[in-house]
Sequence to fold (359 residues):
Amino acid sequence: MRIRQFTAPTTSEALRALREALGEDALVLSTRHEPGGVIVTAAVDVADGDHARISPVATDPPPSRGEPDDTGDVRFDLALIRTQLEQLGRRMQRMDRVFLELDGGAGELGPDGRDIVERLVACGYGRQLAHPVARSFERAVAGALPHEDALRASLLEHVAVAPPDGPQVEVFVGPTGGGKTTTIAKLAARLVREGAQPPALIVCDTQRIGAVDELGAYARLLGATLHVGADAGALRAALAACASSARVLIDTAGLSGDAGACAELQTVLAGAGGQVGVTAVVSAAASLRSLQRVWPQLAQLGASRCIVTRFDEGDEPGVACTWLAETGLPLAWLGTGRRVPDDLIAASGDQIVRWLMAA
Ligand SMILES: Nc1nc2c(ncn2[C@@H]2O[C@H](COP(=O)(O)OP(=O)(O)O)[C@@H](O)[C@H]2O)c(=O)[nH]1
Ligand SMILES: [Mg+2]
Fold:
């Protein structure tokens, strides 16, 4: 892996050049606006060789602690890069497993295996990824595992599950309408219901009218403190004020197809100084294409776990599971309705199978 940079007059042109040269899987690490244009930094496999459009390899060590430098540039710390490389490693391991399975004659599935493939495909799970699951399923059944246990175990080889308890400071990122604010309210309300101290809530979304009021209403109901982190400095101050809270949950403005919203959010989150765990929140009703489109931004923000909402609404819950298998993001919670806090279930193999097979 080496760090490469692309320079272009606009972010979208730089990203287009990057994609053309390195493909969709290039890991974008940062975007920086300079007087001469936008510089996009990406991690690339050395084996990708020379690309005419790539400017010289960045030799500066990636920067310090996720703080803005004197030029206003937001630089990334090594912990973030490590998280992203770990994600990439997990993703490659999964893909290796898929290729191994395909090499091993996925076409020769027995009736049980074929049935599993059809059931998975019917609920939106990618056919190519369903084959390796069916192969492991057949092996497990041959090893005398009951069908349900075999399906659970084979799915878990491809879709990872994260422990439900998040880090002390957790920021929720994802597309607009994905369910970030509702999920934060659910998590906060669960903590209160369990007798824990209410978590401190911080809103970084000041662009959308009502964003602060929305979380503020939940904060009042739950007796939680609410802070506004409109920029990096305000977020730093808010976190300092919440230092004694056992849990701090941070809501953010929604990401869009435009990389600018992501870069703006990165600038704000730099105020947290790399102390936060990043959780992606996406909807099971979203298309695979839209999930794939937002993935580089989630990776760029350092997402290390995921909550998938709207399992109750999506006709094809397998789509979100396919995306989880592709990205290697571990699933922590499933959102299964609008009710706060009841419609939130800790992720497990059983729950994944239940929602997939119910569709
Ligand atoms: N059916 C269903 N609706 C949900 C779920 N989670 C959130 N929503 C709804 O989705 C809409 C957008 O949620 P919101 O939390 O505002 O999304 P945000 O823009 O990411 O903060 C709201 O109407 C929520 O009630 C879920 O798991 N199931
Ligand atoms: Mg919101």
